[in-house]
């Protein structure tokens, strides 16, 4: 291959050429190399003077120009690596000022908690539509994201009645705890928006204080994070002010909602992980262990509040992989030390979060011992652990002539049911449905198959206690109407497809029925030694003539079937949807010695797993339409807010709206970062090391934040459920920090590291941010404002709050 | 700086070389230098003797390649065409693709979610043997012979395409420097796969799709090998052939986008590599590289892809079953379509029906009122309901009335033009302001600042009894046609338009949301502030007026004739407009294919052959065609692919610890060759996980072929390493042509032969399901049911 040799031949002179050109700039690259934490040349001295407050000229004079030329490419690489690894310098500007920290916290207290008692009514999401997505007898708990709901959950915890929600329990437990601490008795039900808090003496202020205080703590957290990333004090303060004076973050943390709690734990994890990054050159020290363990706790807590917390776990996870990869390439790390590192990371970043998450569910189950609105979602086993459940023990042996109730597995549809109403389609015979409650219409009489003598059917007599076993052919007679459960060559009423047959109640006085009433009992995993059917054992019912299986699924019949679940006979239905169990069994012939059985109480783990299945189902079922829902693409550009509350009289309204300046700055930072990285990558590929080094220096630490932003944002594009602007808040936090880092890098570069000039630039930015915050603050705090002011805030025509 | 080398080698020289290399890796040295040094290390004498000795061997090997190629091609054709006339009935999706071929031959417009190339080729095959398209392939099991359909000709096209896959795979593997045995083995696995055979023997698109995908990859591999002679005609040839392949793949089915993605990623890697200063390219040269690739891999394929549609539209000139999918303007271009025959200009005071473009509902109103209080407690005006109703009904009629300029002075006084004066009638024109009177209740369509029942952000739409000038202005609607110019007459059955309120500036909007019982479950209609939204578009359907009889206006014939004589084409859609419309509809309908099918499956089950598809069966079930991969090929294929990934990761981890087991040259081959194929496999499979539509086993076939190729590479690599311990660097010799790829040792031969025999046995065992030749007894059939999830009929 020709070219393979040609560049090689050219290589030498070319390189020399380049080196000659590069000579004057060399000090800079060597600085970059020095800063790389694992680079052998720099690690000798563990306390490298930080590049942050170091003057360029000083560096120039300090660094001897004695580097060997042949290492040039590697050094270039490390310059880039600094940019991408986001690894801050070993000893960054550590002069964290306690005074600044306290001032910021007090300021944030003022911003977040100002008039937190307003509005003194159940607030949030004015336009919650009246239709609830889980109608059909269930309470409307599943309308997401309202004070209505999270307040309601708190009273349920206090009352101990079981409920189901799409979010893990920690956030709601914390709210309940804050209510309990303030003496909330759980009587107030938070049922509708606009309900008054004052008269029933609900300690709503202290309940709101929990998200509020956590919202406050995000501010000092962002300052510390910026310091971890090596930002100058001026920039760190400015970034913290950007976080403090952000209207959406403020608004969201003033109501009884989970997002502020989530953002706080995310911020905590970010702070701890960046701190860990800054002490990673001192492994197994106390600081190292502390930050690692606290980071593990942070991500565990975040995931226990909302599943969105999984994104911060992914962020830490990916960063850990990078860390392990770097460590793997470090020749001075022996295998034993490596394994030690690995174990430490696994314990802190996997073990601790898992324990926290599981523990939150354990507390959740302990707090909710009684039956409640969520009971219907759970399996009978689960229900049997709740106080006040209606499941009773029943006789184990099932024999011909018994009155039984047959419960469907895997959907919470209930029992086989029939009533004196007829299918409007197909055979027009009596309906067979699935009904969640055990009533007289769910009683089925189980009979032996017809006998045929000279082609005439004969009803066999049941005179003795004869148990039913695997393979027996039986008939099922509906108790009250005496109709037989029957299937035939008609398509199912709703799921009208090939291989789906109708199941109907069939029969007439004086007519015994025909062989289409015959069902074969197939016990799942039956024991050939003891092939008898017992109560609570799983079995299938196969239609003798067509071979289809009695089947039901989460499809409701139309009005003529009273919205009950469809029952049909399916030839190719899923096995788990054609599985049944008998949990009520009474037989006049039952011997006295017969044993009774009840549902086994499930272990914590199986309760945990079942809850997750139900949560997942509910979560992906949130596909209703909400007037304020939005798609992820519209979030970073802040195209629309969410109306939270609006006074019945007057102009006061609470509207979730970001601070446009902060969002614009954060958005610009994202774009700029990508641009800078792309330019730096291309330049270094072309060996323009000096310029690439400058870029790398500017974006140092930004890679980690950018990755955080992507991981908290991009996955939403894959979700088809309804989404809202506040889902963007964790991402926003990352992008504000990213803005801070870039602001720091660029001002340092342009202003030549002068800290006074940097303070001036930062103050200007912060002042602008505060000014915009103040003008939007009536929307954030729900305060009255003039119509002109309200109209004047509509900077974009999509912003659609109502200015009465 | 120095690292301890972890590899201890018997040969001190080799170990020295390796040590040097480790060092260089650390220092990011130029790998080329290393090769040069090495070459220098071999004395020239020895080198010349090597080349002399290999010359004879090389000849033999090239002969072996040729022989293998011929055998594979022969066997491939044999397996694909054997018994192709059986069954002589419509099987599975032949229902669709046979039908589309017939429509081409009848030149009637049809609509399908797939691009036209595959169906065009089928039609060409039919046309070639003189088929006239009389048969419509209506039901599975319809008889071909009785209907006199040249189905064997139609089926031989996919069969030929399917047969060519194996030889192309062979050539690709050969180009990737696999040995004769390896390449033959890989291609034979393709020959012996039952699912590929089943899919090729019928009138289906997948064999064409797969062939084009494989060809694109082959062309790209060829192109990669010409790296050293850029911008020569050969280089351009293979680059543009890659582009052609991509265009054809996408031209058959939209999943060709995945092939584009795979090649695209490879191109990016390639370009990134060229950008490296160590390649010694100036920015100018680099831009030339970039431009050549953009030209051949973006613009060329795009042009070819468009040309398929051009032919498509050029052939389908008559109105047909696909009309209903298209816009009125599009239908207008089809011969004999209702739109071009029944259209008429709309005179004022005509009774019209107005239909919604995206839901086909009529603008409807009836005497019932909105309820005083909605379920959520909001209060309505209790005005007359305005809804969207899908069926024809007298309540759908609206009368178009002009605006009285005395009451609404913002509108000009009407002055009839010449034509109107002559006929003494006034026509509705673009941008006219009109009132819409509901014919049954004599009330006017109006909107006002009250939230609509389902969508509180939109305005309520109701009707209002005329009462002098009271609220007159709110009943005025501007008729805006989407592509109209001032003075254009609005015509029925074509021309999409919006009604925008004169006062509130909201457009009449309809959506799929249904009103509750009080609205009889009809669609909600409201005023949308976002005027340009898609769901605000309507068209006039029927026009009732004294002057219009049977859909044409009396006395207009003359001018119509005149219009036809004049060469002015009117407002026919341009090709690009037609293309954009069709492409948009294809995408929309494709993602709408969510209706459950009994044989659909999820992507995760595909590589493991967990389920097949029943294509055709006789009543007794003894003869049936069931799409099922040869497990003796599929299971090894996925194992090998996973093994590749595992080995790749292991190597990188070891390398990170300074243990260089592969060596630079082998790693280059390992990354670029099986690595590229692995990428192809992943990109032809992974994206399906994100798809919401119904998916089938045959969607995996292209990915399957790539996984077979990866596996072949892995087997060759592993067995060569095992049989020639200590010389891994010599395995593939991608550098020089003169040294032929090495043949493996005993292990290699045994492994290949064993796997080949097992694959053959598997093929033979499942052949009755592939060819539908039938089983002797039901037990025979049942014994084939290895997995409970293989839902063979009657088994």
From TrEMBL, chain A:
Q: Where in the numbering of this chain does the MIR domain appear?
A: 395-449, 465-524, 530-585
Return the InterPro entries for the record. ArnT-like_N, MIR_dom_sf, MIR_motif, PMT-like, PMT_4TMC
Q: Would you name any one GO CC term?
A: endoplasmic reticulum membrane
* Annotated pathway: Protein modification; protein glycosylation
Gene Ontology molecular function: any one? dolichyl-phosphate-mannose-protein mannosyltransferase activity
Query: Where is the chain membrane-spanning?
Result: 205-224, 230-249, 256-276, 288-316, 337-359, 661-683, 690-711, 723-744, 756-776
State which Enzyme Commission number(s) the record gives: 2.4.1.109
Localization, UniProt:
Endoplasmic reticulum membrane
Q: How does it sit in the membrane?
A: Multi-pass membrane protein
Low complexity composition bias: residue spans: 38-51
The reaction(s) this protein catalyses: a di-trans,poly-cis-dolichyl beta-D-mannosyl phosphate + L-seryl-[protein] = 3-O-(alpha-D-mannosyl)-L-seryl-[protein] + a di-trans,poly-cis-dolichyl phosphate + H(+); a di-trans,poly-cis-dolichyl beta-D-mannosyl phosphate + L-threonyl-[protein] = 3-O-(alpha-D-mannosyl)-L-threonyl-[protein] + a di-trans,poly-cis-dolichyl phosphate + H(+)
Per UniProt, which keywords does this protein have?
Endoplasmic reticulum, Glycoprotein, Glycosyltransferase, Membrane, Repeat, Transferase, Transmembrane, Transmembrane helix
Enzyme's top EC category: transferase
- Source organism's superkingdom? Eukaryota
Q: Where is this region: Disordered?
A: 1-69
Function of the molecule:
Transfers mannose from Dol-P-mannose to Ser or Thr residues on proteins.
Q: Give the family this protein belongs to, as stated in its UniProt record.
A: Belongs to the glycosyltransferase 39 family.
Quote the protein name from its UniProt record: Dolichyl-phosphate-mannose--protein mannosyltransferase
What is the native source organism of this protein? Answer: Powellomyces hirtus
Taxonomic lineage is: Eukaryota, Fungi, Fungi incertae sedis, Chytridiomycota, Chytridiomycota incertae sedis
Automatic annotation (TrEMBL), chain B:
Pathway entry: Protein modification; protein glycosylation
- Principal location: endoplasmic reticulum
Q: How does it sit in the membrane?
A: Multi-pass membrane protein
Look up the coiled coil feature and give its residue ranges. none
What is an example of a Pfam family matching this protein? PMT_4TMC
Which stretches make up the MIR domain?
343-403, 425-482
Enzyme kind, highest EC tier: transferase
**Which PROSITE patterns does the entry mention?**
MIR
Q: What is its EC number?
A: 2.4.1.109
Top-rank taxon = Eukaryota
What are its GO cellular component terms?
endoplasmic reticulum membrane
**Which is one GO molecular function term here?**
dolichyl-phosphate-mannose-protein mannosyltransferase activity
Q: Does the keyword Transmembrane apply?
A: yes
InterPro entries for this protein: ArnT-like_N (IPR003342), MIR_dom_sf (IPR036300), MIR_motif (IPR016093), PMT-like (IPR027005), PMT_4TMC (IPR032421)
- Residue ranges spanning the membrane: these are 152-171, 178-197, 203-223, 235-252, 258-275, 295-317, 633-655, 676-694, 700-720, 746-767
Keywords recorded for this protein, A-Z: Endoplasmic reticulum, Glycosyltransferase, Membrane, Repeat, Transferase, Transmembrane, Transmembrane helix
So what does this thing catalyse? a di-trans,poly-cis-dolichyl beta-D-mannosyl phosphate + L-seryl-[protein] = 3-O-(alpha-D-mannosyl)-L-seryl-[protein] + a di-trans,poly-cis-dolichyl phosphate + H(+); a di-trans,poly-cis-dolichyl beta-D-mannosyl phosphate + L-threonyl-[protein] = 3-O-(alpha-D-mannosyl)-L-threonyl-[protein] + a di-trans,poly-cis-dolichyl phosphate + H(+)
Member of which family?
Belongs to the glycosyltransferase 39 family.
Name by which UniProt lists this protein: Dolichyl-phosphate-mannose--protein mannosyltransferase
């Amino acid at each position: 291959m020709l070219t393979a040799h040609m560049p090689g031949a050219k290589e030498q002179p070319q390189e020399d050429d380049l080196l000659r050109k590069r000579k004057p700039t060399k000090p800079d690259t060597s600085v970059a190399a020095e800063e790389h934490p694992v680079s052998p040349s720099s690690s000798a001295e563990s306390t490298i003077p930080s590049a942050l407050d170091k003057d360029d000229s000083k560096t120039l004079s300090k660094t001897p120009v004695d580097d060997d030329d042949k290492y040039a490419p590697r050094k270039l690489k490390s310059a880039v690596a600094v940019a991408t690894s986001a690894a801050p310098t070993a000893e960054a500007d550590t002069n964290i000022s306690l005074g600044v920290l306290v001032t910021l916290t007090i300021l944030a207290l003022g911003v977040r908690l100002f008039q937190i008692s307003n509005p003194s009514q159940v607030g949030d999401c004015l336009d919650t539509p009246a239709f609830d997505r889980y109608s059909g007898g269930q309470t409307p708990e599943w309308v997401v994201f309202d004070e209505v709901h999270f307040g309601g959950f708190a009273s349920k915890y206090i009352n101990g009645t079981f409920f189901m929600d799409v979010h893990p329990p920690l956030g709601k437990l914390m709210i309940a705890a804050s209510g309990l601490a303030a003496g909330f008795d759980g009587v107030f039900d938070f049922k509708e928006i606009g309900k008054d808090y004052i008269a029933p003496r609900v300690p709503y202020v202290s309940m709101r204080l929990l998200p509020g205080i956590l919202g406050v703590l995000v501010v000092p957290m962002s300052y510390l994070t910026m310091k971890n990333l090596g930002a100058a004090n001026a920039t760190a303060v400015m970034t913290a002010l950007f976080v403090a004076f952000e209207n959406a973050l403020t608004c969201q943390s003033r109501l009884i909602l989970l997002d502020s709690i989530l953002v706080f734990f995310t911020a905590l994890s970010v702070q701890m992980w960046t701190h860990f990054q800054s002490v990673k050159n001192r492994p197994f020290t106390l600081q190292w262990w502390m930050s690692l363990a606290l980071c593990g706790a942070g991500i565990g807590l975040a995931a226990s509040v909302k599943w969105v917390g999984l994104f911060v776990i992914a962020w830490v996870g990916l960063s850990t992989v990078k860390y392990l990869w770097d460590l793997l390439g470090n020749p001075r790390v022996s295998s034993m030390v490596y394994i030690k590192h690995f174990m430490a990371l696994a314990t802190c970043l996997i073990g601790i979060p898992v324990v926290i998450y599981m523990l939150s569910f354990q507390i959740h189950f302990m707090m909710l011992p009684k039956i409640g609105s969520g009971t219907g979602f759970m399996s009978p086993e689960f229900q049997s652990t709740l106080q006040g459940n209606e499941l009773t023990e029943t006789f184990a042996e099932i024999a011909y002539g018994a009155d039984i109730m047959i419960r469907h597995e895997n959907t919470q549809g209930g029992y086989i049911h029939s009533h004196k109403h007829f299918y409007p389609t197909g055979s027009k015979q009596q309906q067979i449905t699935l009904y969640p409650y055990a009533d007289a219409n769910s009683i089925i009489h189980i009979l032996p198959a017809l006998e045929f003598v000279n082609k005439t059917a004969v009803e066999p007599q049941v005179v003795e206690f004869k148990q039913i076993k695997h393979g027996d052919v039986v008939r099922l007679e509906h108790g009250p109407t005496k109709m037989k459960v029957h299937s035939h060559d008609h398509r199912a009423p709703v799921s009208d497809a090939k291989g789906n047959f109708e199941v109907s109640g069939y029969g007439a006085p004086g007519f015994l029925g025909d062989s289409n009433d015959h069902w074969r009992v197939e016990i799942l995993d039956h024991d050939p030694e003891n092939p008898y059917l017992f109560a609570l054992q799983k079995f299938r019912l196969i239609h003798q003539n067509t071979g289809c299986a009695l089947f039901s699924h989460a499809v409701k019949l139309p009005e003529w079937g009273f919205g009950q679940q469809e029952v049909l006979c399916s030839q190719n239905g899923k096995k788990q949807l054609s599985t049944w169990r008998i949990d009520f069994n009474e037989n006049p012939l039952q011997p006295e010695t017969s044993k009774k059985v009840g549902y086994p109480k499930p272990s914590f783990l199986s309760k945990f797993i079942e809850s997750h299945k139900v949560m997942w189902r509910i979560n992906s079922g949130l596909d209703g339409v909400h007037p304020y829902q939005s798609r992820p693409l519209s979030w970073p550009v802040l195209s629309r807010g969410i109306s939270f509350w609006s006074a019945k009289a007057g102009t006061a309204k609470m509207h979730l709206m970001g601070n446009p300046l902060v969002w614009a700055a954060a958005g610009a930072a994202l774009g700029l970062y990508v641009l800078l990285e792309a330019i730096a990558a291309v330049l270094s590929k072309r060996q323009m090391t000096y310029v690439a080094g400058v870029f790398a220096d500017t974006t140092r630490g930004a890679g980690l934040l950018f990755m955080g932003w992507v991981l908290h944002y991009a996955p939403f594009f894959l979700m088809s459920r309804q989404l809202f602007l506040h889902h963007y808040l964790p991402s926003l936090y990352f992008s504000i920090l990213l803005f801070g880092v870039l602001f720091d890098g660029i001002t340092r570069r342009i202003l030549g590291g002068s800290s006074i000039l940097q303070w001036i630039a930062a103050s200007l930015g912060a002042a602008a941010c505060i000014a915009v915050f103040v003008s939007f603050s009536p929307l954030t705090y729900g305060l009255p404002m003039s119509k002109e002011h309200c109209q004047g805030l509509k900077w974009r025509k999509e912003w659609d709050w109502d200015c009465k | 700086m120095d690292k301890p080398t972890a590899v201890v080698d018997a040969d001190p020289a080799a170990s020295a070389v390796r040590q040097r290399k480790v060092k260089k890796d650390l220092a990011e040295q130029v790998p080329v230098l290393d090769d040069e040094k090495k070459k220098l290390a071999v004395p020239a004498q020895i080198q010349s003797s090597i080349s002399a000795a290999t010359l004879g061997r090389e000849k033999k090997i090239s002969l072996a390649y040729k022989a293998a190629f011929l055998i594979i091609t022969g066997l491939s054709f044999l397996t694909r065409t054997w018994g192709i006339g059986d069954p002589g009935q419509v099987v599975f999706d032949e229902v669709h693709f046979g039908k589309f071929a017939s429509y081409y031959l009848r030149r009637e417009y049809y609509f399908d979610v797939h691009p036209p190339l595959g169906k065009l080729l089928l039609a060409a095959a039919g046309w070639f043997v003189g088929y006239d398209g009389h048969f419509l392939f209506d039901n599975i099991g319809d008889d071909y012979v009785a209907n006199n359909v040249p189905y064997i000709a139609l089926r031989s096209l996919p069969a030929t395409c399917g047969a060519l896959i194996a030889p192309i795979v062979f050539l690709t593997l050969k180009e990737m420097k696999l040995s004769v045995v390896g390449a033959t083995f890989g291609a034979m696995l393709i020959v012996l796969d039952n699912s590929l055979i089943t899919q090729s023997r019928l009138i289906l698109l997948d064999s064409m799709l797969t062939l084009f995908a494989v060809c694109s990859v082959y062309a790209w591999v060829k192109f990669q090998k010409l790296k050293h002679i850029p911008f020569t005609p050969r280089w351009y040839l293979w680059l543009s052939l890659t582009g052609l392949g991509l265009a054809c793949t996408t031209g058959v089915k939209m999943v060709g986008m995945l092939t584009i993605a795979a090649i695209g990623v490879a191109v990016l890697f390639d370009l990134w590599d060229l950008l490296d200063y160590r390649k010694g390219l100036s920015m100018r040269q680099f831009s030339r590289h970039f431009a050549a690739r953009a030209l051949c891999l973006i613009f060329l394929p795009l042009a070819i892809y468009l040309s398929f549609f051009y032919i498509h539209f050029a052939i389908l000139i008559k109105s047909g079953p696909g009309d209903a999918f298209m816009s009125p303007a599009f239908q207008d271009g089809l011969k004999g379509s209702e739109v071009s025959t029944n259209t008429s200009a709309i005179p004022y005071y005509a009774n019209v029906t107005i239909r919604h473009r995206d839901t086909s509902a009529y603008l409807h109103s009836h005497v019932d009122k909105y309820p005083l209080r909605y379920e959520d407690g909001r209060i309505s005006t209790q005005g007359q309901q305005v809804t969207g109703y899908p069926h024809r009904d007298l309540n759908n009629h609206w009368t178009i009335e002009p605006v009285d300029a005395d009451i609404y002075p913002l509108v000009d006084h009407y002055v009839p033009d010449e034509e109107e004066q002559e006929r003494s009638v006034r026509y509705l024109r673009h941008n006219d302001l009109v009132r819409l009177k509901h014919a049954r209740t004599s009330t006017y369509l109006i909107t006002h600042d009250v939230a609509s029942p389902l969508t509180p952000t939109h305005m309520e739409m109701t009707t209002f009894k005329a009462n002098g000038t009271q609220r007159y202005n709110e009943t005025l609607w501007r008729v805006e046609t989407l592509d109209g110019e001032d003075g254009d007459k609005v015509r029925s059955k074509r021309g999409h338009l919006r009604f925008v309120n004169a006062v509130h500036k909201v457009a009449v909007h309809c959506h799929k949301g249904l009103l509750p019982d009080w609205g009889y479950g009809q669609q909600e209609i409201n005023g949308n502030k976002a005027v340009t939204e898609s769901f605000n578009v309507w068209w006039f359907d029927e026009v009732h007026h004294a002057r219009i009889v049977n859909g044409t206006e009396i006395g207009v014939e003359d001018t119509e004739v005149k219009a036809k004589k004049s060469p002015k084409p009117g407002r026919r859609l341009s090709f690009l407009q037609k293309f954009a419309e069709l492409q948009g509809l294809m995408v929309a309908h494709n993602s709408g294919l969510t209706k459950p099918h009994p044989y659909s499956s999820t992507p995760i089950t595909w590589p493991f052959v967990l389920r097949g598809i029943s294509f055709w069966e006789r009543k007794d079930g003894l003869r049936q065609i069931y799409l099922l991969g040869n497990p003796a090929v599929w299971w090894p294929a996925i194992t090998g692919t996973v093994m590749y990934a595992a080995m790749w990761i292991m190597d990188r981890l070891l390398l990170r610890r300074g243990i260089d087991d592969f060596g630079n040259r082998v790693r280059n081959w390992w990354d670029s060759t099986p690595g590229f194929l692995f990428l192809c496999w992943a990109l032809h499979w992974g994206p399906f996980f994100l798809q919401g539509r119904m998916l089938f086993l045959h969607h995996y076939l292209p990915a399957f072929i790539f996984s077979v190729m990866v596996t072949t590479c892995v087997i060759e690599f592993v067995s060569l390493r095992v049989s020639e311990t200590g010389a891994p660097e010599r395995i593939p010799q991608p550098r020089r042509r003169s040294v032929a790829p090495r043949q493996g040792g005993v292990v290699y031969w045994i492994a290949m032969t064993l796997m080949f025999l097992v694959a053959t046995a598997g093929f033979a065992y499942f052949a009755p399901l592939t060819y539908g030749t039938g089983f002797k007894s039901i037990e025979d059939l049942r014994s084939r049911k290895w997995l409970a999830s293989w839902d063979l009929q009657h088994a």
